[in-house]
Amino acid sequence: MHDPEDMYDWHQDVLDVYRHVVATVEDESIQRQEAFQQAESRLLEMYDEGSLKIPANEAIRAALLEVDKRDGSRADAVLEAALSGQDSFGMEGDPILDVVVILGEGRRKLWRHVTSDDLREMDRLRYRNLRSQQHAYETWRDSYEPTLEALSRFPTFGDAVQHGGFA
Asked: What pLDDT score does 91 carry?
């Protein structure tokens, strides 16, 4: 049996607060950092009030995803630093050799253990991602052109949807 607390979806609360923050600017836009700060403030209030419960395993997983993303995004910088003779990013406890690199297919490895085969696989992955991004852009353009044409007749996307601008 499931514990009723297991059924609680804290992601929905986060989504609701985030969307509310962005909605408050209506026709304007908001910088991501500002939206995050406002949402974080409200979510911390909810946490303090007890209406937001954060499952520890999900918080830990989110933190792991963030550090994996952060290290993974450093691949180019690691190569450039190594080629220039640097052995760290200049931050304490952050030597280049201990940065986790994304090899592809879900595989990870410390840079200190990367082989020429690993580097070739990383290149193949980047090329495949490039092709995928080109396809995604082409698909975007197929939708962009008619959407832009519809939006030229209405002040907002919402107005176009409500008044049949895409029919």
From this structure: 59
Sign of the torsion formed by the C-alpha atoms of 44, 47, 53 and 59? positive
Q: Is residue 42 part of a domain?
A: yes
> H or E element: which one contains 101?
strand 100-104
- In this model, does residue 5 exceed pLDDT 60? no
| Residue owning tokens 């290290």 | 71
Kindly tell me if the per-residue pLDDT of 114 is higher than 90: yes
In this prediction, residue 27 has a pLDDT band, given cuts at 50, 70 and 90, of confident
pTM: 0.68
- The DSSP bridge partners found for residue 11 are none
- DSSP code for 160: H
Amino acid in position 18: Y
Q: Judge whether 90 and 42 are in contact, CB under 8 Å.
A: no
Task: Judge whether 41 lies within some domain.
Answer: yes
pLDDT of residue 1: 37
Our CA angle for 149, 30, 74, nearest 5°, is: 100
User: Are 41 and 82 part of one and the same domain?
Assistant: no
